[in-house]
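Re: the request from the purification team.
They wanted to know what the chain is likely to look like in 3D before they choose a buffer screen. I agreed to run a prediction and write the result into the notebook, where they can find it.
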Amino acid sequence: MKITRFAYIPSGTDLSALYRERVGDYPKFFKMDLSSKLGFLLTEMLVGGDPDRFEPRDDRAVLMFSRWGCLSNDRRYEETVREFPSPALFVYTLPNVVTGEIAIRNKYRGETSAYVLDGPDFREMAALVGQAFSDRATRSAVCGWLDAHDEADFAGYAVLVESDENDDKLVIMKELIEEIKTKVIAALNLEGMQPEDIADDAPLFGDEGLGLDSIDVLELIVLLEKEYGIRLANPAEGKKVFGSVAMIAGYVAENRKK
């Protein structure tokens, strides 16, 4: 994954003025809570100039992170409860409404997720963004940190994250490794063993690994030909290929016929 664009809204920004400057044609903006306004405007700053921005997209996710969620609007709604609860404010008493507003405006149909964290934990945020890309359908994501405490104390930034060829290769290889683990367990009748019991780079032969022998090599040779169309005529060559599951996956990726 790589960050290709960045947008920032500092505290004290006149959000209505920024809306009129950047957007101006989406009056629903004025109904939004503070968090949604921040996320909405940050997204406009990221993708507002794209010529095809309103074409429906299944490959773009929206992930927003915040410390306060929709707290500022919760407080406003609580005040109305004393007399008559405001339906208009109630709509914005969920932290994930911001992702819905962004998705509706831009016709994004990928994952939409909102997370409330104690603070901007970049390691955790990066891990959650990475999970969004693990489905192989997601090619990009609008991701933002929305620090929306109240109308006098707010700030936010957002990035556009896009996948690259190396990301795809890593995902494909990881999936192939897991697939091969499952097939090896079935082919060798390793009852009770699960794919997670086999480390990717653990040796398959010897006391430290699965303890496979020459008979098992023949079974794995048959597996390669049956499942991937790869023929190994020499069992000695098989011992090199079958050093670990990761080695098998690398060989299959380079030589598979089906």
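For the purification team: The chain has two domains: 2-163, 166-255.
Please add any questions underneath this entry.
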